[in-house]
Amino acid sequence: MKVLGIESSCDETAAAVVEDGKKILSNVVATQIPFHEEYRGVVPEIASRKHTEWILPVVMKAVSDAGLTLADIDGIAASNRPGLVGALLVGLTFGKTLAAAEDKPFIVVNHMLGHLYAAHLDRDIEYPYLGLLVSGGHSIICRVTGFDSIEILGTTVDDAAGEAFDKVAKFYGFGYPGGVAIDKLAANGNSASAKFPMPKIDKSADSSGKAHRESALHRYDVSYSGLKTAVINQLDKFWNPEYEKTPENIAAAFQETAVNILLSRLFRAVKDTGISRIVAGGGVAANSLLRARLAERKDLECIFPPLKLCTDNGAMIAGVGYHYLLRGDRSPKTVSASPRVEGFRRLGRQN
Ligand code: KG4
Ligand code: ZN
Asked: Which numbered ligand comes closest to the C-alpha of 251?
């Protein structure tokens, strides 16, 4: 079954054709980065307008790159949440309309399920595993037992991991997207130049029952607003005066703590659940320190998608779409877009 996947949740207009949820026949990603760069962040209105301009040529290129015509496509999938609603609506409406015009089955896909599926496009992965979903808008640690069967163990209580990279980079003018810029700078910096505090949301402030319940609730949750504030507003407080405050050193010290926050919660989940297989996804899964740290853990099986499948793409949407369509799931014509992951304690089929 050949599925066309459409992705337009943020600043990439993307489409791909994937066969049987595995074989990528084409993968077209038109990045809008140059149009948002001067604002050091994504401007939603520009994103929607660019998607509107590019969606038709991107989809048609994906079909022709696959060596196919629309008649050969067996189903169409589009992401409909979470993301910028104006941006999502472009790909979603385009996909729905194309499906209606061509009389093809249509299904919506949760963008985060797409990120989780990205690694499955590269190799066969057995369930269960722990998912580490880290993007510009979300940080999720979850137990995964099927392509749409996810139990959220922890998430962020404030900023997402990628958002922290983006905001620190924006403040210091390191470049956009922030994660890539910080990753590059950090390679030539010293992470010992500052020691930023780890979040304490999982530690009870006193021994009262309420505080204990609170800390148990946050056992796998992450927080990035404290780190962001420390790096942006309190750098002197945590800086080691033996080091120069270069962009490289700031980036390295920030990245070290940002990665440690994720890993501390992930390793706790490994210990508690006894699950030693980890699958990462989302833009931050491209981070070289995160990848290196997980690679060091020989007792764990850590699976990352290839770099080009970490960030937004249509192939991951087509991959999840295939499994829904195979099962007979279809989305109604009235299906709409949403900025939220939805439900949040439980991802999965929503429409
Ligand atoms: O998954 P994605 O392409 O879009 C969303 O769904 O948000 O992720 C984009 C995020 C941005 O915050 C970007 O700064 C971050 O992923 N990112 C990275 C790296 N590459 C992209 N963060 C850390 N290190 C990287 N190498
Ligand atoms: Zn994404």
From this structure: 1
Q: How far apart are CA 347 and CA 111, in angstroms?
A: 11
pTM: 0.93
**Ligand 1 atom at shortest distance from the alpha carbon of 137:** 7
**Could you count the other beta carbons within 10 Å of the beta carbon of residue 187?**
13
Q: What is the DSSP letter of 121?
A: G
String of b and e for 232-264 (b: at least 16 CB within 10 Å)? eeebeebbeeebeeebbbbbbbbbbbbbbbbbe
Classified as helix, coil or strand, 284 is: helix
Burial class (CB in 10 A: 0-12, 13-18, 19+), 296: exposed
- pLDDT, average across residues 226-240: 97
Output the ligand 1 site: residues, CB below 6 A. 10, 115, 135-137, 162, 165-166, 177-180, 183, 282-284, 286-287, 311-312
CA–centroid distance, 117 to ligand 2, in Å, is: 12
Which residues does 57 contact at the CB level (< 8 Å), separation at least 6?
none
Segment 44-100, tens digit of pLDDT:
999 999 999 999 999 999 999 999 999 999 999 999 999 999 999 999 999 999 999
On the question of pLDDT at 150 being above 80, the answer is yes
Taking the centre of ligand 1 as the mean of its atom positions, its distance from the CA of residue 179, in whole angstroms, is 6
Tokens of 145: 């037992």
User: pLDDT at position 341, please?
Assistant: 82
CA 290, 296, 299, 302 dihedral sign is positive
Per residue in 154-207, pLDDT tens?
Answer: 999 999 999 999 999 999 999 989 999 999 999 999 999 999 999 988 876 555
Cβ-proximal residues to 119 (8 Å cutoff; 6+ apart), any chain? 125, 279, 280, 281, 303, 304, 305, 309
CB atoms near residue 190 (< 10 Å): 17
Task: Specify the residue with its C-alpha closest to ligand 1, atom 23.
Answer: 179
CA distance 285 to 202: 24
